[in-house]
Design goal:
single chain, eight-stranded mixed beta sheet, globular
């Protein structure tokens, strides 16, 4: 699906950000993007406590009716997505590449489960765009822009997770962090 800015399917919260993408490419249910969401982000190399925390928060918040949004990365992102799926909730993966291939490949099965269970994969990058480093900060503005708030679980000082948290604050969204 292609969802254009200004169309009825375009997520209303995302439309409010200063640099909202003109087009979103969506695999799965585009209506999911307009649901109340919480973004959960963090390190690709979490502790077992961090991984469990992300999964538990994803599960409990999905049971409470929020869609869980994350970036499909290894670690905290994958744990948050899995928690939402474990709760039979909805989850949205915002990716930093075209939708023609999953990155990282280890999360291919997770991506398929998200789509099969009425969630969505979303990007503003066309098919054929590889997962280049510069694509991920661009992806993070969408991740935070879709959600009412962002929860950070285990993040390094110079990380994409903290970029997402900063963007969420700049977008007027709530920012939460797990201590530790």
């Amino acid at each position: 699906h292609v969802v254009a800015w200004g169309s009825p399917d375009y997520p209303p919260l995302l439309a409010l950000i200063q640099d909202a993408p003109l087009v979103l490419y969506v695999e799965g249910d585009p209506a999911t993007l307009s649901l109340p969401q919480l973004a959960i982000v963090g390190t690709r190399n979490p502790t077992s406590l961090g991984r469990d925390t992300a999964r538990q928060f994803g599960m409990h918040l999905a049971r409470a009716g929020l869609a869980i949004t994350s970036g499909l990365a290894l670690g905290i992102d994958a744990a948050a997505h899995r928690g939402a799926l474990d709760a039979h909730g909805l989850t949205i993966a915002v990716v930093g590449r075209g939708l023609d291939a999953i990155y990282p490949r280890d999360n291919d099965e997770l991506a398929r489960s998200i789509v099969e269970r009425h969630g969505a994969l979303v990007t503003d990058l066309p098919v054929g765009t590889p997962p280049l480093k510069q694509n991920f900060p661009r992806r993070n503005r969408i991740l935070s822009g879709l959600a009412v708030g962002t929860l950070v679980v285990e993040a390094a000082l110079q990380s994409g997770s903290l970029i997402t948290a900063r963007l969420a604050g700049e977008q007027g969204r709530e920012v939460f962090a797990m201590p530790g």
